[in-house]
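WARN retry 2 of 3 for item q-0093 after timeout on previous attempt; input resubmitted unchanged.
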Amino acid sequence: MIPLSVAWDDIGGLVDAHERFLAGARVDSDVRAPVLDSWKRCRYAGLRPDRPTARYAPDLALDHRLLLAADPVLKDLSESFADVGMTVVFCDARGRVVQRLGGAPRLRDLLDEVRFAPGFDASEPVVGTNGVGTALAERGPVYVAGREHFADCLQPFACAGAPVRDPLSGHIEAVLDLTCLRDQGDPTMVRLVREAAHAIEARLLEQATQRERALLAAYRRAGPGAAGPLTEPESAAVGRGTGRNCGELGRIDLALLRERAEELIASPQRTLEEVTLPGGGTAVLLRRQVMGAAGETGVVVEVRVLGGPRVPWDLPVVPVAPAASAAPVPADASPGAVPFVSIAAAPGVALPSPLSPTWSVPPAGPGAVEDGDGDGLGADGRLLLVGEPGVGRLALLARRRLELLHDAGGRIGTTLDVARTAEELAEVAVPRFADFAAVDLPDSVLRGDEPGPLGAESPLRRVALGAVHEESHLYGVGDKVRYVPSTPQARCLESGGSVLEPAVTEATGWMAKDPPRLERVLSAGIHSLITVPLRARGATLGVVSFYRSDKPAPFEDDDLSLAQELAGRAAVCIDNARLYTREHNTALTLQRSLLPRGRPEQSAVEAAYRYLPAQAGVGGDWFDVIPLSGARVALVVGDVVGHGLHAAATMGRLRTAVHNFCSLDLPPDDLLTHLDDLVGRLDRGEGWEMENAPPDSGIVGATCLYAVYDPVSRHCTLTRAGHLLPAVVRPDGTAEFVDLPSGPPLGLGGMPFETVELELPEGSQLVLYTDGLIEDRHQDIDSGLDRLRCVLARADRTPEDTCEAVLDALLPDRPSDDVALLVARTHALGPERVAQWYLPSEPMVVSRARAAVMEQLSAWGLDELAFTTELVASELVTNAIRHATGPVQLRLIRDRALICEVCDGSSTSPRLRRAKSEDEGGRGLFLVAQFTDRWGTRYSHEGKIIWTEQPLP
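OK item q-0093 returned
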C-alpha cells in the first residue's frame, strides 16, 4: 500500500501545496517524497505545468523477444479490466508509448487529448510527473493521482507504473502503466502493475532457459556430418583418462574451471585457455560455437585435464545463476532461471546416470577432438559449459561485483579517521568500478560534530578523489564544493536517494554548477555518473560521486546497486570514525584544559616541554612547572594508566592535588605521601556519588616524579612513586640517570617515599618523561633508556633543542601511548642577588636587622621598597624572637620579586587574625599581609621559614 499525502476527496490541499511549491516554498510535509522529488526534477528541467510539450516518434517497435513475452500478459491484463474502465499502456525504455490497450471510450478520448497515445513521449522531462516517466526516473513502481501530476492537463487521471527489467542483465527494457480517471484510482494499482511486470520478466527468463536448452540439444545432436566439429561419442568408458589416476576433480578445481569457462564464453576473441588446478595438473579449455535448431547461437566450452585428476564421466549439467552460484539444481526442477549450463559436483552426492536424457552430458566424441594437432582436446575432452556470450558476460560482471564488495568489506574502515575512510572508499572504487570517485563531506563531519541538514548549496569539502589519471578537471582534495539545485548531487542530498545518469551530457542541470569546468570534464571523456548519499543512522553525512571515462560502458542499474552498497558500508565506517573523532576531541579538549597553559614566570630554570597524545586516544600523562616560595621551582611528571575521558579526568584530579599540596610548601616525600593517600581514597570510592551515575572505576594505576630545585643553593631534591628515572645532563654533555629509589605507584600506600638531593652545576639539564617515549611494542624499556642517554649526551643544547632531538630520535610515527617530556636547564642566583644575616635571639637585634635591610636595598637600588621591607623584616624578626627558640636567620633575595625570609627553630606557624579594639597585640602579621603580595610558611629540618614577596618597582 502506498501512503497518500491527502484523502481522495480532499484535492484542494494538494493543489495549494503545488502552488506553494511553484512559488518556492517548502512542502515536504504535504507531499509524498517520490512525488516531491519528481516535482523538483521537473522544475530543474524547466517544465511549466500549463505548457507540457508533446513529442511524437512514429513506427516505434520493441524487441521481438520482449513483445513475445509481454503480449500474453498485456492481453490478460486488458481483459481483466474490461469492465473497470482502465487502460493498459506499454512503453519502451525511454518512456515512449508503444501500445495502449483497453479503457472506456471517454477515458481513451481524454488520453488522446493529452497526447498519451502510441508514438508520444511520456518521459518525465517531457510531460512531468506521471506513471511512466516517474517510474523510469525512480527506477521502481510509482503511483500518481490527481494534482500529484506536475502538468495541469494530467490532473484528471490516476496512474501506476512499473519498469520491466531483463531478468539477466537487470536493464530496464520497458515500462508498464495502468491509467484510469482520478475518481477510480486506488493505490492497489501499484500491486497489480508490479505483478504484471514480474510476469513479463518471468517469461523473458523462460525464453533464456529455452535458448540454453536448445543450445545443449544442438551440442548433443551434433554428429560427424553436422556443421562444426562436435559429434556424439561412439562409446563412453568411465574412468578413461590421461595423467595420474588419482581420482576425480574436487570442488575447488571444478569451481575454478567453471569460473574460467564463464570468462572464456564472455570473451569472443579467445578460444583456448590453459588453467593450473589447485589439486594438481593442468586443464585446457576450448571455446566452440554452436547453433540450435531454431537458429539460436551460443558457445560451448570443453575441458581436458592433463597430469592430474580425471574429469568424471557422470558430472551433471546444472543451471547456474548469473551471480555464479554453484548450487546444483535437481533433475526434476522446473525450467527457471538458467542463464547458462554448467558442470558441478559435490562430494557424497549421487550423480545421475550418464544416460540421463535431461541433465547427463556425454563427452565429446572422436569428431570433436583431434589428438596431437594442438587444436582439439584429445580423447578426454568433456563438455563443461554451454551458454550465450551475453549471459556469460553478465555472470562475469556479477562475480566481479561480488569480489569488489568482498574487498570493500576488508579495505574500507581500517582506521577511525574520517578522511582516511573516505580515501579508502575512493581507492576501492577506482579503477575496478569507476574511473573517478569523489567524496564530499561537510566540515562538521570532519570535526566529529553532528551533520546538519544537507541539500542544494550546502558547503561541502572534497575529502577524497580517486582517479585513473590527473586530467579529470574535477575539484581537487581540499577544495570547497557547493552544488546548485539542478545538479544530480544536490538532488541526491535533498531526496536522500541515489541518482544514476548513464549519459551526463543528457543530465538535467548537470552543467549549471560550473559550465567552464564541466566542459573540460566532458572533454576529458567523462560520460557517465552515479551519485549516492552517504547515510548512516538516519543522517546524511555527505555524497560520493562515481564517474566513468575510460570505461566505455555507461553505468547501469546493477552498477547503481553496487554503488549504493559501497556507499552504505563506507557511510557506517565514516560515521563510526566521526563518533570516535568527537569523543577523541572531547577527551583531548578536556586534557588540554587540564594541562599547563604556557610557562609560569620563574627564574630557577629554563623549561621546555612536549605533550603528544596517542593515536588510540588521549591518555593520562601530565607535567607541570610550579613556582614555589624562596625562588624555588617544582618539576612534576605523572602518568595515569589507560586512555580516554576517565584517564584525562583522573590526570586533572592529580594535577590539581599537586598544586594544592605545593601551596602548603610540603617537602617532596611528604607531598607524595599526601598524594598517595588521596589516590587511595579515590580508589575506595570515598566522597559523594550522584544518583543514577555510573560507578567510578577509580584510578587503576598512576605514577609520579616530583623534583624541587633551589637556585640559591643549586640543590635539587627528587622523589618518585613508581615512575621512570629522571636524567641529568651536565654542562659538559655527560648524561646519566639519577639513582633514585623507587616508591610504590600511587594508591598502594603503606610504604614511605625516599628522596635524593643533588647539587647541580648551573646549566645542567633535568629531563623528566613518561614511558610512552621509551617503550612500545618494538622495544623494551632498557633499550629505550640507552637510546635516550645517547641522544641526551650533548653539550650546549637548549631545552627546546633537546626536546626536538629526543622526539625525532625516539618517537615512532604513530605512538601507541601518549608522551610527556619536560626538560629544565638550571639557573643559579649568585651572592650578588642574595643577602642573609644570622641574628641572636635578642630584642636588641631588631634595630640592627632594620639597618641591614635598609643598607642592602640601597645597594640594590630598591629604595622605593625600603620602608615596607623594613617594616616587614622588623615584624617577622620580632615575632621570631618573641615566640620562637634558637637563632634567627634573615635573608633577602632579589629575583622577579623581592623575597624576605625569616627562619627560626620553632615549628609553630603564625596565624593571621583580626585584632579586637582592646587587644594590645596581634596586628603585626596583619600589617605584613597588607604590605606584601604573598606570604606564607614552609617547614625545614631545622624549623620553619616565614616568607614574603613584594613586586619590584
